[in-house]
Specification:
The protein has 3 helices and 9 strands. The protein is an alpha+beta fold. The protein has 2 domains: about 1-55, OB fold (Dihydrolipoamide Acetyltransferase, E2P) (Beta Barrel), CATH 2.40.50.140; about 60-130, Winged helix-like DNA-binding domain superfamily/Winged helix DNA-binding domain (Arc Repressor Mutant, subunit A), CATH 1.10.10. Helix 1 crosses helix 3 (about 105-115). The longest helix is centred in the middle third of the chain and has 18 residues, at about 60-80.
Length: about 130
């Protein structure tokens, strides 16, 4: 679904008008990156409450989101000389701030890239493996 953000609540998250018909909420724990009042957002419905209001997520289902997150990490690595200056053991707040994803989502993406042979995990950083090295 798509809608327009009309309110930003520190306690709850973002309130969205969907199709000028339904009231919806993107909970605080689902917010990544910058979304402002007036922005049009494309979301996935995660729940329809008894009162008819919708709960939304900006992210895809986990099995789809994992490859999106892995691509995001690869772009970060390429833009930062092949290094992420922390590992999957880092503080969740640091991961959320730097990567715009939860620690759990980060760990899944790291695991995906590790399994594909695209990264190595060091003591305090993640390093991109270049082809032929």
């Amino acid at each position: 679904v798509s809608g327009i953000v009309y309110e930003d609540s520190d306690n709850f998250g973002l309130f969205v008008a969907v199709d000028d018909l339904y009231s919806a909420l993107i909970p605080k724990n689902e917010l990544y990156g910058e979304v402002r009042i007036g922005d049009r957002v494309s979301c996935r419905v995660t729940r329809v409450r008894e009162d008819g209001k919708l709960s939304l997520s900006l992210r895809e289902k986990a099995y789809l989101q994992m490859s999106i997150d892995a691509d995001h990490l690869m772009r970060y690595l390429e833009a930062n000389r092949g290094e992420i200056p922390f590992t999957d053991k880092a503080d969740p707040a640091l991961i959320r701030e730097k990567m715009q994803m939860s620690k759990n989502e980060f760990k899944k993406a790291v695991g995906n890239l590790l399994k594909a042979g695209k990264i190595q995990i060091g003591k305090d950083k993640i390093v991109q493996i270049k082809n032929g090295k």
